[in-house]
Structures are given as C-alpha cells and as structure tokens.
Amino acid sequence: MDLERLLAVARGDQPAxxxxxxxxxxxxxxAEIEQTSVAIAEGRIAGLGDYHxxxxxxxxxxxxxxxxxxxxxxxxxxxxxxxxxxxxxxxxRGVLGAIxxxxxxxxxxxxxxxxxxxxxxxxxxxxxxFMASSCVPATHLETSGADLEAxxxxxxxxxxxxxxxxxxxxxxxxxYGDPSTLAKLEVAAGRVKDGHAPxxxxxxxxxxxxxxxxxxxxxxxxxxxxxxxxxxxxxxxxEGSSEKNLAELLPLVNDGNYHRCLFVVDDRSALDLLxxxxxxxxxxxxxxxxxxxxxALQMATLNTAVYFQLEGLGGIxxxxxxxxxxFADLQNMHANEVxxxxxxxxxxxxxxxxxSVRHTPQFLTTMNVRPYTREDLSLPATASPTFPVIxxxxxxxxxRRLDEAPPVVDGAIVGDVSRDLLKLVVIERHKATxxxxxxxxxxxxxxxGALATxxxxxxxxxxxxxxxxxxxxxxxxxxxxxxGGLAVTDGDTVxxxxxxxxxxxxxxxxxxSVAEELAKLD
Amino acid sequence: MDLERLLAVARGDQPAxxxxxxxxxxxxxxAEIEQTSVAIAEGRIAGLGDYHxxxxxxxxxxxxxxxxxxxxxxxxxxxxxxxxxxxxxxxxRGVLGAIxxxxxxxxxxxxxxxxxxxxxxxxxxxxxxFMASSCVPATHLETSGADLEAxxxxxxxxxxxxxxxxxxxxxxxxxYGDPSTLAKLEVAAGRVKDGHAPxxxxxxxxxxxxxxxxxxxxxxxxxxxxxxxxxxxxxxxxEGSSEKNLAELLPLVNDGNYHRCLFVVDDRSALDLLxxxxxxxxxxxxxxxxxxxxxALQMATLNTAVYFQLEGLGGIxxxxxxxxxxFADLQNMHANEVxxxxxxxxxxxxxxxxxSVRHTPQFLTTMNVRPYTREDLSLPATASPTFPVIxxxxxxxxxRRLDEAPPVVDGAIVGDVSRDLLKLVVIERHKATxxxxxxxxxxxxxxxGALATxxxxxxxxxxxxxxxxxxxxxxxxxxxxxxGGLAVTDGDTVxxxxxxxxxxxxxxxxxxSVAEELAKLD
Lengths: 522, 522
Fold this sequence. Notes:
The structure is a homodimer of 522-residue chains. With 522 residues, chain A is of the alpha/beta class. In chain A, helix 4 (150-157) packs parallel to helix 6 (179-187) and helix 11 (279-288) packs antiparallel against helix 12.
C-alpha cells in the first residue's frame, strides 16, 4: 500500500482508483446513512465527501453501500468446503471477514491442519482470520488425530492470521482450575479469548470468566444471555444450520448493550450458505424480527471488528480497507456487487474468483484404519437382557440414554427397525488402533441400509449407523475408499457418496457441486 | 495473582478477601444498576451474586459501586505534579486509570524523561499508562531538550506501560505525507494511535485519518465533532482547566454513537484537580447538562478501556481488576471510598498513600543556560518605526499579530503599560546556545514587574513577560535558581516562586502545597 498516494487521493490531489457516487453510505460508527461519495485508492477508503475524479466512477443510483460483513464465529469445516470454496459462498453475500475456529482440522491433523486453513485463507478475497483451537481433543473418551497442548497453542498464536484463543469449550476445566486448561489460557493472556459456555450461569459463570474469557456463542435462553452480557461477555447471537438462537436473543438487545452484541453462524452447511446465506442471512432475519437495519449492520460489522481488535475493518472510513458491498433494499439486504480491497470480487450472488484446487497429499490421505472384517462389527450379546441405547433428541446436541432389550441373533445384538433401534459403529481412523465402538441408537428411523460419515464431532472417526452389518460395512468401506466423506448404502450397494478427502472433512469440489451432491444425498 | 484461588472464590468454595453487600452496582456493559453482592479476591473481581463469606464484609447500605474511572487523555506535567502526586489527586476522585502523553518531559529529556514518568506510575495505586509522544520537538522554530525520531518511538512502544502512539499533533505532516512523520506512524502500526486535529475537516481530515489515527480530543465545535465521529474517530470530549468542550459536544452523543465517545481532561492544573476533580468532574458536569448518569459513566470507563484495549478494566465483572469506588448520589457523584486491586486507597477525598519523593539528579538539574547579562535582554530598535506584537486572545491557544510603534529609549525598544505593550523574552535553557528571543506582547495587562516560567509549551525554555528589563532579568534568574518553575518579580525583588525542579516542569512538593503556592502566585 502506497500511503503517500492514498494521502494524495484523500486530499483530492490525485484521482482515485474507484469512486462511488450517488450512494447511500451506511455509517456503522454512528448508525446513520450518508448521501456522499466514497473515494478508494490503494485498496483503502481514501475519503468520503466531495470527490469527482477516478479511474472508475460507479453511479450507485441511490443504492446502499455498506462495509463488508464480518462473521464473528464459525467453523469453516462444517460447510464441507475448503476455505477457498467457503469464501466463494461467503463473499458474494457481502461477507468479507470471518473469525474461524479450525477445531475440526486441528482434531485430525493438529497444527499442520491449522496451517492448511491459514494457507487457504490467504488465497481468497476476504479477511478470514483464525483463533487457536483450545480444546483438541475435545474428549479423552475417543481417539483423535492430534493433541494441542499449551506450547503448541502458543506457537499457533504467533502465526500471522491467528488473532486469539478459540472457544474454550472445556468450561469445567476452567471452572475447576484444571492445570493444562489454565496453561492454555495463560499463553493467550492479553489476546482475545472466545468462550463456549452453554447454560453456564451464576457462580459457575463467574469462575469461568475469571481468566477474562470474552464472549459466548452458545447462549440459547433470554435470561442466560442477559446474565452473560451483565458479566462482561460479548454476546455472539448465533443462527446456524441447526442452532437457531436469534429469535430468542434479539429481544435482549437494547440501547445500553447493543455494542456488546454480534452475529455469528458457528456451523452452516454448504447448502444453507448457498440458499440462505452466511451472516447476511442473520442480518436479514434480525431485521424481519424488528431490529433496526443500521443496528443489525453494526452487530455484523463494527461490533465484531472492535471485539476482535481488527484495525481498519467494520466501517467505511478513511484508511479502512475498501471492503464493501452494494445493495438496493435496506429491509431485505442482498449484496449486488461486492468489493474487497477496492476490487470487484462478486456480482449478482456469484464469486468472480476461483482459486485452483490444492492437492496436498498429507491432507488428502488421512484415513489410517487397521484392517477389519464385517465380523469385527458384530456386537456380542451380554448377560443382561437389556442394552443401553443412545436416543437422539431432534434439533438438540444432547442425547438421552435408554435401556432396551434388543433382538439377539447367533449370539449378537442386532437392530430392530420396528422399534427404530439401529446399530451404531465408530471405527477409529487416525492411528490404526483397531478400536471399534459398537452400540445402539434410536432416532434415525432408517428402514434399510446405512449412513457413514467421517465428519463426526469432535474426533472425526468413521461413524456409521445402519440396520444391518452388511450395509454398515459397505458404508464404512465406502468412506474409507474416498479418503473420508459421507456414504449411503443398502446392503453391498453404495447408493451415494460425498467424498471429503481433505482430512476427511472437506471436499475438493466447488461449492455448487458440493451443495448439489449434498441435496442428492439428503 | 493466584488464579486457582480466584476461581475457588468465584465458585463460592473459599471466602473472598473482600465482599461488598447491599450495594447498587453500576453495570457499564449494559447501562444497568444491579442490586447484588460483589466478591473480590487476589486483586480481582471474583464474582457478582450470591456470596456471603469474606475476610472483610462491607455493607454499602444502598450506596453505589462503580468501576474506576479512566481518563482517556491527559498530560500529567500540566498539573505541575509528579506522577505520584498526580495520582494522589486523581485516585481519591475514583479515577483509577489514565492514559497520559508525556509530551512535556519528552521535550525536555527525551526517552529518559518518559522513563521517569513510567517509573512514577509504577509507584501508585492506579493504572497510569502512557502513549509514546509523537511530536518531539513540536516545532523546529525553537530549541528543545530532545528529539524523538521513529526509531526512538519504536523503542518506547516496546516498554511495559506504553500502549500506543500519542496524539499526532503534526497534522500537516500527516496530511502532506512528511516522511519522518509517516515513519513514526509506521512503527506504531497495529497499535492505538491518538489524534490531535483541531478544526481539521473535509478532505484534510480524510487524509489525516488514512494512517488509521483513532481519536481526537481537540474538537471544539458540534459539526466538527459529528464529522469526526462519522469518519470513524473516537470522540474524546475534553473538559480541561482552560479548554472546555463538554457543553458544546455533549449534545452530539446519542444512542447510535455513544460507544465511540469518551471523556478526557487533557490539561488540568493542580488547583482544579484539588477543587473540581479529574474526569469525575467531567462526569458530574455531563450529568448536570442532562446526560444519563449510566451513559456518562460508560464514557468514563468502558468506552475508554475498549478503545485503548485495556483488558480487565472499565467494568465490574469476573476477572476484571478490583478497581472501584463507592458513592452515594448518582446525580452528584463524589467518591467516598476508593479501591484499587481490592485495597482501600482513598477515603473521604483523601489519598491513603504517599510515595516517597524521588531525588534523581539527572531530572533535577535540567537548566543549562549560557551566562548572560541584563544588557543581553535589550531589544535594539530597528529602522522601521513599527514592530510586530503578539496579541494574546483570551481563552484561546492562537494569537494574533499586530504592528505597533513602541517607545524607544537609548536605542532600545521598551514596553508601554499605557498601551499594554510588554516585553517578552525567551531564553534557551537546554543546550546553552545563548539564544535569546526578544519581542513584544499584548494581553497580560501587567502594570509592573515580570512573570517567568519554564513551563513554556512545547519546548519549555525560559519565557518571561514584564514591563522592564530589571524585573525580567530578576524573574529569569529566579527560575534558573530553582532549576525551573514560576516566578513573579517587581524590579529586583522576587515576590514569589513555585519551584518546579523536576525537568523544570514538576514540583517535588505534595499536591496540597503546590495548589496552595499556585493560589498565592495567582
């Protein structure tokens, strides 16, 4: 960036690179709309006001110009897309910044996985920044691909593009002072530290906050949100693919606290990104629910930039990055043209960039499964007539425990579709331990066949649910053969797959194909 | 700080060090008042809520508890007090944080002078942080004691307690891209950079902001303030000893922008500190002018902490520093008891601490004047019958130029009290250059005698105004003999002095004595 030239353009002594005229400029600092021109040079906003000369002049004809939206918290991996393809979904929506926790890749490939994400982020026209994942593995009850201890987190915190400590999920570890958890917080002293504290309130919440954890995106109830705001947390209001908290939490936002509130998506699928949007969808829904459009935009731009200390992002002001988007309807905001660093990067909902696919063998061959046969999936009957069953609760992350008497065939417990009892198998896939967990689950309502996935939070082993071992075996082998992904089988027949060869989490295909395949698989 | 113990207190498993009960707790995050207990341990807030056990329990009997106030911008030297004595004035007011620009000491003693201030700050119970002075010297038309170039600023920015770049006064240098000015901004990239841009608007303001200068405290007019807020600056509303901008700027503050506004004092004399207060006086006046008390408190606490990225300051929340004060009347807020890190440090307006005086020779012997005689102060008559006169404009920092025909006696220009024409002399005192500037001034209305000072912005040479050379010479010699300070003379008679031997700027005496001597001198 040539600051001297930027200054010359700002002074009006040299023509701008790009000049927006006749626009209504969204001012996120003051919650106002200004009728003014915006001059851009050197990838930055040079100035607002009385400018006339530029290499390119764009007449907005009364349309709006807003600063690029910033998603305060997401997991890119949850989209099944690489960072490059995620950006192709986000950018056309006007989303030009996002703070990602690379928790899933870190669980599979540790800090090398995080590097993969950082490298992808450098290839796209958006400010995709990362937090150092704090809870890898998330549990010691399962085998993960990697472990991140405090010294590795410290290393990651030193990397360009990493701005703080990612959601501290281990809230009991914080509250009860687990030394390795406190060590991770210690290396992040003075950096932004995101929280994750579903349902944590009262003295437990006080304790959780003592290390100055700054935010929470797991709030689902009004009173919980109010308490968290009062205790100094930034309230990240989440509206993801499955977790939808906006309608509950928006009524909390008022004149006194809105500057402490921001919007996030956490987990959104490629399909939802394509059809509904990224954090722009949250802004639209908030407006539909009665939020003032300017305030909704503040919560998706400036507030996020201020919390994460992102200098030069979150507003349209001199010196700020020329990240902005044009739209026509303030009540139903859809980005028409999107500019990153003053360059047109998306138009009419389509990305104008397409980074090449990265074929890096170390991230494409992460399936390390000890050989097994179909017989190894058998679940031997026990002395007890009953057996524990995991019951899925619709739209919840938590499950319930049931105890049922399952059918036993040839000394092995099997499923029973009439009672929606299905077999659930977890095959360790990182360290070839040969560990295979077997159990029963209720809630999938499959009538036949099996579903397999290597996107299996948080350790991402192979998880298969099915009505019979033949289908289960075939599904597991199918996702092994694609180096990870999703598969649907019926007996030996593979009905469909979505290969996710990038660490068993992400596709090598473009956004549009992934969305199409996902729809088919559904 | 023992985090494990803090957690135990927060959980309610161990008694707190200190517990406030029956208080009304000012919540600066949400602009609310909470009736709740506040538990303190390890110098931090452990939690708010249902706590009962503590080594010391204080029943607030319905009084208020607020987080320590933070002054967003001041020059400690302007109080004539050392940092230690400044703190003795500020802390009893509930002011437990301040961001100081050590511009005056830097002009006299460079980075060593800044170290002197940092060292003083470490000796007092308040969070007195510093910005690296950006404009030393402020002008090349006068000889200063030191020069700070970019590499020295970089060095200062690396010191603990230095949090950013101080007010960039050289706005023409920024706007027109002076390389040494840009170099100073460059070394502060990514750090908070304060501005100083009186009357700068439009394209000039846009240019000034291009290097991401973040604030302005020099705004005096409503429209100017509105424009600066719109362009992304934090608006520091100043209410100093002479510059009073609150009444003009407060009407600007609204629901959409208040989180971008903060209160500062900039320059306040020891007398005003003692009689009126520090930033607490600004809060009181804002409330008198109609500002909601909770909002006024946000502008003097949280907003300042957020702008300067002061982790754990600006609110009463778990993990935050236990810096707080108790007061009885929300409409007329006067601190009763003040706690810093959970320790009582002031009560009833009196500091409970008194650091020893630092006698450091290098800072107490800064007068380096080349010998001169009274005759050297003579101003030779010129060929022209008129001579330029500096006219002081009451309550303004700017002066006007006049041209008058002064009396000439024995070939020398002299003053004329009937026309309020006085002699003005500047004696260089840093490098013994022997430079003596001589001229005429109007506006002091002295009838006899002279006034001398070594507090002479920004280079702090000896400045003397007087009706005759005898008085002027005596006054200059008087401040030399005290190693700096103020003096009033009448002929050879010294009527009074305020010695300021610390770099010629600050007294070694306690606050109360300085205030008393100042009143006498006035």
